[in-house]
């Protein structure tokens, strides 16, 4: 028997939802590849990828098949039991990375929560209760739980919620000397995004990450890479740390890992994992068979030379076009990022107006993102068709022409 759906409109959002979001004026109802259709049947090109989530686009046949097949078998058993998809996905991730052990969660925030708790537990057990301090970067983003928002270096997200978690400090990103001055033997972990996402699509310098690794080793601190946004092929490698040749002690993943189905993972070494014993941490839904079946399909497809190599080619196509548009319309002064996580930095006259560019693009049937007020962000499907890239960029050009009066 089919469920009868009551009609809903965008105006309903303002009546029934807690007002922590301000969604677009239209409601997407269907997606295929990198095209999306709204309630009125309008077609849009999707350069957002669900904020770096829909790594294989919308309704990818292999993901639909994996989900449908698993849905007919087993949806949920809790962590009183394990399940086959979780074990298969864990083995895939271990085989492809530095890690020996995996913990599954439902989101990036939960993966980071687990990582930060593990780091403090590790410090407590190897050196005592004073080794609990965590250092992260200004303008970083690590999630919305009280712990993760406290670790993230953006006060606008952490203020107004009562006393803050102690033992957390923030230093400028890409500034090794600032970290050197802050780190001590009380530091249990340094937490970084290899490319700051919400902070404006800002890649770490090679020498910086190498230096951070050395400082962590000198002080017995763990190095945590938050690869929630940069992971699962987004940069052209399975994880961004592989570009740098700098290996973390803990890595967190989510977003693209499920290709649109909620799943998160914390990856770590045997040496660190052993400090999380039975009952120390947990989750009800983490490692859900549905999520892990989809994640297994995602990794199997993305971690191939064809897909990863294709990211670099598509990236160059995007960069060249964005630089041309920047020069022609005087809106963008720089394009930065890696692979298909790109940020077009607004020029001086356009500072603070990323939201305007995003809205103008929507009016031209293009979905794009912003990363702060000064950066327009692009995080499309890794397998987006070249025809969709070109059509989306043509729509972006129309938006820029209209904004600038050109």
Automatic annotation (TrEMBL):
Uppermost EC category: transferase
Pathway(s) annotated for this protein in UniProt: Amino-acid biosynthesis; L-arginine biosynthesis; N(2)-acetyl-L-ornithine from L-glutamate: step 4/4
GO BP term, example: L-arginine biosynthetic process
The keyword Mitochondrion appears for this protein: no
Domain of life: Bacteria
Chief location bin: cytoplasm
Subcellular location, record wording: Cytoplasm
Cofactor note text: Binds 1 pyridoxal phosphate per subunit.
GO molecular function terms listed in the Swiss-Prot or TrEMBL record: identical protein binding; N2-acetyl-L-ornithine:2-oxoglutarate 5-aminotransferase activity; pyridoxal phosphate binding
Entry keyword set: Amino-acid biosynthesis, Aminotransferase, Arginine biosynthesis, Cytoplasm, Pyridoxal phosphate, Transferase
Note: May also have succinyldiaminopimelate aminotransferase activity, thus carrying out the corresponding step in lysine biosynthesis.
The name this protein goes by in its record: Acetylornithine aminotransferase
Originating organism: Geopseudomonas guangdongensis
